[in-house]
Design goal:
Keywords: Cytoplasm, Hydrolase, Nucleotide metabolism. The chain has seven helices and seven strands. By secondary structure, it is of the alpha/beta class. It has one domain: Maf protein (Alpha-Beta Complex). The chain is elongated and about 55 Å long. The structure holds thymidine-5'-triphosphate (TTP).
Length: 211
């Protein structure tokens, strides 16, 4: 990674492009207070997955697809700004089954009743693509989350807040969902949707230093 880092520094980046519509990811990138401007460019990347893929493969491939779709958009715009495009994808995995976002409130209740009283795994993939030379780095992080035992009534009250509806696994650890999580092992920001410690390590070789 160090070798291509040197090369890229001569092709100085002008901006970061975050290929995401997730307000959480936008806030997390902003929290790094990077010296480069950040452009938001979300796309409709194909999020279909193959049943044979491992959770790590799922999040890495989807993160790369999201970043690649945004990078292709930059090319179509004929943008000549050297940009680093970042894509991410988060899934919740229970007993080998990938749980995405709920389709409705009943689905969210059913998902949370499965998750309560035990642990599950959260995977987030992160992809960085240089818009001009196509250098691509993709990695993932894994966090184990233990949820408290919850009654159906409590789960229904939580789902009625609306918080679970746009989130993988039907909860948001950063919001009211904090009250139903017992503990975690691994990166907290990985659960929220963007592992900042990993992202910082991935940015370095592209010549983007965090503070
Ligand atoms: C488990 C969990 C997930 N989430 C969110 C993070 C992601 O936004 C979402 C998982 O869906 P993703 O498909 O990873 O992302 P997205 O559709 O929200 O945004 P985009 O594809 O445009 O980048 O779930 C939380 O905010 N908190 C949590 O505790």
């Amino acid at each position: 990674m160090a070798a291509f880092g040197k090369e890229l520094q001569s092709n100085k980046l002008c901006q970061l492009v975050l290929a995401s519509s997730s307000p959480r990811r936008q806030e997390l990138v902003a929290s790094l207070d990077l010296s480069l401007p950040v452009r938001i460019l979300s796309t409709d990347a194909d999020e279909s997955i193959e049943p044979t893929w491992s959770p790590a493969e799922v999040v890495e491939k989807l993160a790369e697809r999201k970043a690649a779709a945004a990078a292709a958009r930059l090319v179509a715009e004929e943008s000549d700004k050297p940009s680093l495009v970042i894509g991410a994808d988060t899934i919740v995995v229970l007993d080998g089954e990938v749980l995405g976002k709920p389709i409705d409130q009943q689905d969210a209740i059913a998902t949370l009743m499965r998750l309560q009283g035990r642990s599950h795994d959260v995977f987030t993939g992160v992809a960085c693509i240089h818009s001009q030379d196509g250098t691509t780095v993709v990695q993932h992080r894994h966090t184990q989350v233990w949820m408290k035992p919850l009654s159906q009534a409590r789960v229904e009250r939580y789902v009625a807040t609306g918080e679970p509806m746009d989130k993988a696994g039907s909860y948001g650890i950063q919001g009211l969902g904090s009250t139903i999580v017992e503990r975690i092992e691994g990166c907290y920001f990985n659960v929220v949707g963007l592992p900042l410690s990993l992202l910082a390590d991935m940015l370095g070789p592209f010549g983007v230093d965090v503070y």
